[in-house]
Amino acid sequence: MFSRSAEYAIRAMTFLALQPAGKLTGAREIALAENIPMQFLWKILQNLARRKLVRSFKGVRGGYELARPGDRISVDDVVRATDESTMAQGCVLGLASCSEEKPCPLHHTWKGIREQLTHMLEQTTIADLARVAAQTDRLRQTGDNSSQY
What is the pLDDT of residue 149? Predict the structure, then answer.
């Protein structure tokens, strides 16, 4: 659903949100933990820093941290920082000539879904994802495979 860049950025941001406040995390640690290729991650982190979603610190004790609390960074912020065109843009059928004036057969249905998806991405924060990730980790460590969903 997301581009690879957006997916990796969301995973990296969630990993950073799980770190203790004030801890700087190196790109190598993020890459290993999230199984993201280093060269790709560096580009993503540079882009996220340019967009003021992460702060980077150089040097031996350097690393990355969220630029603001995770509950103030939406998933939409991250997706927009990594993708010039998000998965919600364009024709759902891939047609070049789809528009309000000349819609494809799914245009109006997709428009409603796109609006709902955008709203969900705007309302879901990196802190929300980190909470779910932490809960999933705890369940995995205790061996509890039951789901509350």
Answer: 45
